[in-house]
Every structure is written in structure tokens, then in C-alpha cells.
Amino acid sequence: MEARPAILASCYTVNSSTALLKGFHYSTTGAGGIPSPPRSPPLAATYIENEKSASYNTNESATGRTGGAADIITEECERLFCDKLRDIFLVERKVPVQASRVVTPYKSTSINKHQVSMNMSEWLEVWDYTTGLNFRGFVGGQGKGKSLFVFFGEEVVGQDLKPGLMALIELTEILSCLQLVVCLDRSSDPTGMKTLMRDLGWVGFELATLAPWNGGVEETSRQWVMLAMET
After folding, report:
1. In 3-118, at which residue ranges do the beta strands (DSSP E only) sit?
2. Residue 224: what are its φ and ψ, rounded to 5°?
3. What does the pLDDT look like over 135-144, one tens digit per residue?
């Protein structure tokens, strides 16, 4: 009997310009034991892209869930931005709350955010079902210089990050990004941080600054330690 692919992780992205929500599953063929993806928000994407299906669900209940999920993902990701990241990747533009409307596969939606991204294209949330961890991040940069940024909060220090990293590396390629940049919370336990940075170094990550996205100016974040690896 052919083994069924086990879903190891899921990623949900929100386009920063259109608010379009997409879902991706990272799976492998093997034994069971991996819990099924949750169905409640913010994991309410009904547009799933994988090798088997790509379909829209346009009923009213799905419409409400996907709109809510996109808002939650956007707000939770933006909340993690320090002042330096905001300066580089976001720009303030005063927009009347009801002035701009976008049409998604689900409905026409008013954009009520005053911050409009100019140097980033996607917000994202990743769920690792092997460890129960979740990661938030964004796609920053333009063209061939796009990079996938993922925030590692203090809750991930000391956890098994191998399954999640494998999914993130795969996602970096799917999103056509040049490199994966992990952002480690400076307030994390110093001993755990030192061990995590050492382990990431063995994988191929190196300390990075914001120069590639900041006009060559060598600056760092006061909130996040950044390590980058080309994929």
C-alpha cells in the first residue's frame, strides 16, 4: 500500500499590496503520526497550492474566515518590527480608511492600514506540526535581491528547530528568495542564544547586517540578531 504524504508544516502568506491569502503545505512521504493542520483562524486559508490541488472556496463563511486570517497574520507580523525594520521595509503613507479597495478571490476588501509596504511583498506565518512551533516573517527586498525574513522569538530557544528549518529553506526557494534570514530575539536567554547561534552556524548561517536592504549602510537591529544563509 502506497504511503500517504504526511504534512509536516504549513505556511500562509498575505500579499502586502492586495491582501491575498495563500496557503502552502510542506509534506513528505512516510509514516503517520503528524497531526492534521488546524482548521480555525489564522489557519483558515481556502486557497491551497500544492502538487495536487489549487481551488477557491467562495462561500460566505469561508470569506469571513480568510479575511480575518489575513488581518491577523499581517498585524502579528508587523508587531514584531523594530523601528529600524520599519524604516527600511515600510513607509508611512496617509490613506483614508475607505479610500482604497482591493478585490481578492474571496471579496472586495477595504484596506484600513496606514502603512503601505514599498520594500516588502509578503507577510507570512509558518506552523511546524512536528514541534508545535510557529514562526512569523516577511519577504523583503525586490527582484533578485528578495530575502525571506523569519522571527525566532525567545520561545524557540532550546527547541528542536531542524524540522522547521527544513520547511523554511524549502519555502525560501518556493518564494523565489535569494536567502533565508533568521532574526533572533536579543532578550532570549544568553546561554540558549549562544547555543542556537552556534548550531545555525554549523548549518551555514552567518551574522548579517541590514546593509543589503539599506543602501549599503551597515546597521543592525537593537531588537533582533540577524543571521543569513543563501539557499
Report:
1. 5-15, 21-29, 48-49, 90-92, 101-103, 108-110, 115-117
2. -125, 140
3. 999 999 988 7
